[in-house]
Amino acid sequence: MEKVILDMMRWADITEEKLREKQLIITGFGETLSWEYLCYVRNHPVNWSVPTCILYGDKDNLTSQETIHKFANDVDAELTIMQNGMLFFQDAGRKKTLIYNLLDKLPKGNLITDLN
Q1: Three-state DSSP class for 80?
Q2: DSSP per residue over 34-47, as a string?
Q3: Taking a C-beta distance cutoff of 8 angstroms, is the pair 56, 80 a contact?
Q4: pLDDT mean across residues, the chain
């Protein structure tokens, strides 16, 4: 998450000093950057310990492929890259198909899902 925040700061040409001074800054692309949240992220590193499958769109404009590969490797997650996919799924039918395909890869057990 820290990398995502720092990338957004870079895109908006905002330094850490400026963010610390202002505390909250609304970017030109509609995201609000928060000094408090950046500090929280830095002080609470991810401790991931559950089996995880990640579906990543190769056209995601927020998280780089390098970042998602590193995260998947760090938490031992299975990473599926969807060709021509974006940060958000474009339609419900495509989303359901992709989710069902991922669910088939998970261990069977007490998994409850609601895809509506």
Answers
A1: strand
A2: EHHHHHHHHHS---
A3: yes
A4: 82
